[in-house]
Design a protein that fits this description.
The structure holds 2 protein chains of 2 kinds.
Chain A lengths: L1 H8 L5 E7 L2 H13 L6 E3 L6 H6 L6 H27 L12 H27 L19 E6 L7 H10 L4 E6 L1
Antiparallel strand pairs in A: 1-3, 1-4, 2-3
Chain B lengths: L13 H13 L4 H27 L14 H25 L6 H25 L26 H34 L3 H10 L7 H34 L11 H27 L9 H32 L2 H12 L3 H13 L7 H4 L2 H28 L14 H24 L5 H4 L15
Helix pairs in contact in B: 2-14, 3-4, 3-7, 3-8, 3-13, 4-5, 4-14, 5-6, 5-7, 7-8, 8-9, 8-13, 9-10, 10-11, 11-13
The chains are: A alpha+beta, B mainly alpha.
Chain lengths: ~180, ~450
């Protein structure tokens, strides 16, 4: 039962070729070469963000700021609507002689709604775009979250040719090249 | 060319950083750590007993009375919320200003924020006297009308501000930790360690596309936390400033509270870092004297801002020509609570000026003592604001005095037990230094030498 459940939720990988480096600069050169060779689906696995890699692989700027922007507005609209609906429409009560719709006094709560919606939606977008949570995803090498850097080309990439990929990895001094699942 | 100060000492490689920081989670801590943990745990248990008795018997046990309706609970709430602010300042504001030295203290400062807000949040609930009805603070559909909360009240603003702050700080802290939790997962030999940290890391893999989104979200959270942190203590100050009590009804309160919060928070970071460096010597290569000195400079600068606010308050009280306002400020300085006022001035304005001297800024024992003085001074600042303003207002027939009881002291001292217990647990169970943020700054100050990695 537990085993079946685990098998159902476990993250499945894709077959492909991986090259592993200890020098991140060589990895960036190799990424440039892979891109020149016409590969588009490959990715780098690094223990910390490498800024040159976005350009080398051709990763576009993240779309998440748009999510933040839109949900910030949703928070604003929700905050304004909720304070109005509760205080001026659903059960209006005069407090301190102020108008039912006392906008200046509602600003702090509306502001907090904007921040809360924007922050949580950004995190939600990150979790969605990174495909998290993943249960036991395949790991190429446990050191890739510590001090090693890898490039992985999935088998379904355009013009996938193991010999060609191996040649590129070898030319740039990969410490290890293997067929693996990721 | 001006030489840059190294941010990490000991010529570490990437692997050394992983080993050092993950090692803290993997190894069984020494007797010094357990002794500290058990003593703060004892204080925490004492706190639980004190709170239990106060809830069971009632608020009459504490010193609050008429006219001093706000006492230790509110003072200590503002104190702890203020402490939390330095964590967000280090993790978010210094991040936006590209201050690379923040990397090795950011995680611990954020943890401090989360635990300080948790500690703070209990006090207003205790202060209500009927904590089992605390859910009345939230707007929820009910059968009394429905009677909604009063959104014109600063106390409701405070509920929204503090709960948003707690949520966003917690999320920011956790998102920052995900790649490091994945590092611990990948190193784990033990089955349960692999499962627990694997679940906590959400299966993070660190691909280029992941990092691209991750860094963007980290920056967005920093950009959202910055106005948030300023709003939180401003709103806490509205609890006072929106009332009509002389001494509270002033427009300087929001910036004054925010400066004071940053001041007290940095003092608490210095206090904690000195303790951590003593308990966990591995930290010394990452949290260097340079980091401590930078924080001491911020303490000195914000101490001057707080001093300016004290002076400005006095000036405006005189300049206003309002007799009640003038009386409150005279009463603070020479009335029955003059001792607390001058204690506050000495601790917050005079003593931090010693940090002008480089030898004081870089001396661990001296900065520890000064940071404790600042913590005491900032608690007394809130004591002065709450107690002296309430104890004498418009009608001399309704003047009174505030006497703290055993239960007031118990709740105040006990809250440190809760805070330190959570903090000490964190320091050895979660990656206490941001591994993935320290690695890119290893080369700073070591340029021209051997390449790392």
């Amino acid at each position: 039962m537990v085993d079946q459940l685990y098998a159902a939720v476990k993250a499945r990988g894709t077959e492909g070729m991986a090259g592993i480096w200890t020098d991140e600069h060589q990895l960036i050169k190799a990424a440039h070469r892979l891109r020149e060779a016409g590969f588009v689906k490959f990715d780098a696995i690094t223990p910390f963000p490498l800024h040159e890699i976005d350009e080398a692989i051709g990763i576009p700027r993240s779309y998440i700021p748009w999510v933040t922007f839109v949900f910030g507005f949703v928070g604003l609209a929700f905050g304004l609507w909720f304070t109005w609906w509760t205080s001026a429409y659903n059960w209006p009560i005069i407090v301190g002689g102020k108008p039912m719709w006392s906008l200046p006094a509602f600003i702090p709560v509306v502001f907090e709604c904007v921040i809360l919606f924007a922050a949580l939606s950004s995190v939600g977008a990150l979790i969605f775009s990174a495909g998290l949570p993943k249960v036991d995803p395949p790991v190429i090498d446990p050191d890739l979250t510590s001090h090693k850097f890898a490039l992985f080309v999935p088998h379904n990439d355009k013009g996938y040719d193991e010999a060609k990929i191996q040649q590129i990895f070898q030319d740039l001094g990969a410490d290890e090249i293997k067929r693996t699942e990721f | 060319m001006i030489k840059r100060t190294p941010l990490v000492l000991g010529k570490k490689t990437y692997q050394d950083v992983t080993n050092d920081i993950c090692g803290l989670v993997e190894k069984v801590p020494g007797p010094k750590y357990f002794a500290s943990l058990i003593s703060v745990k004892a204080l925490f248990v004492f706190y639980l007993v004190v709170m239990g008795v106060i809830v069971a018997k009632g608020m009459g046990l504490m010193g609050v009375n008429s006219p001093i309706g706000w006492g230790t609970d509110i003072i200590t709430f503002v104190f702890w919320i203020g402490i939390g602010h330095a964590g967000t300042l280090i993790s978010a504001v210094l991040f936006l200003f590209r201050q690379k030295w923040r990397t090795s203290i950011a995680r611990t400062a954020e943890a401090m924020t989360v635990f300080a807000v948790m500690t703070a949040g209990l006090f207003p609930i205790l202060h209500t006297g009927r904590p089992w009805l605390a859910f009345w603070l939230l707007p929820y559909p009910n059968q009394r009308g429905p009677l909604w909360v009063n959104f014109r009240s600063p106390l409701v603003w405070d509920v929204f501000a503090v709960s948003t702050y707690a949520t966003v700080s917690l999320v920011f802290w956790y998102i920052g930790m995900i790649p490091d939790l994945a590092t611990i997962r990948d190193r784990a030999k033990n089955k349960w360690r692999k499962r627990i940290y694997g679940a906590l890391s959400l299966g993070w893999r660190g691909t280029g596309r992941n990092w691209n989104h991750y860094e963007m979200v980290y920056m967005l959270l920093a950009a959202l936390s910055t106005p948030l942190v300023l709003s939180v203590h401003s709103i806490v100050s509205f609890d006072f400033a929106v009332s009509i009590i002389p001494g509270w009804h002033t427009t300087i309160f929001p910036p004054y509270f925010v400066a004071g919060a940053i001041f007290s928070g940095f003092a608490m970071v210095v206090t904690l870092m000195v303790i951590v460096r003593a308990l966990v010597p591995e930290f010394k290569n990452y949290v260097t004297i340079g980091h401590m000195e930078a924080m001491n400079k911020i303490i000195m600068a914000t101490g001057l801002m707080v001093g300016y606010a004290y002076g400005s308050e006095k000036f405006i009280a005189w300049y206003s020509g309002a007799p009640y306002e003038q009386y409150v400020f005279m009463n603070r300085a020479i009335g029955p609570y003059a001792w607390s006022y001058w204690l506050m001035v000495v601790c917050n304005v005079v003593i931090p000026q010693l940090f002008w001297l480089k030898s004081v800024r870089t001396s661990i024992p001296l900065m520890f003592v000064i940071s404790i003085f600042v913590n005491i001074g900032m608690w007394f600042e809130r004591y002065v604001i709450v107690v002296t303003s309430l104890h004498r207002d418009f009608l001399p027939s309704s003047w009174g005095m505030f006497y703290m009881t055993f239960w007031d002291f118990g709740a105040l001292i006990g809250s440190f037990g809760m805070f330190l217990f959570l903090f000490l647990l964190y320091i050895r169970t979660l990656p206490a230094i941001s591994i993935s943020e320290v690695k890119p700054v290893l080369n700073v100050g070591h340029e021209g030498g051997d390449k790392h990695g």
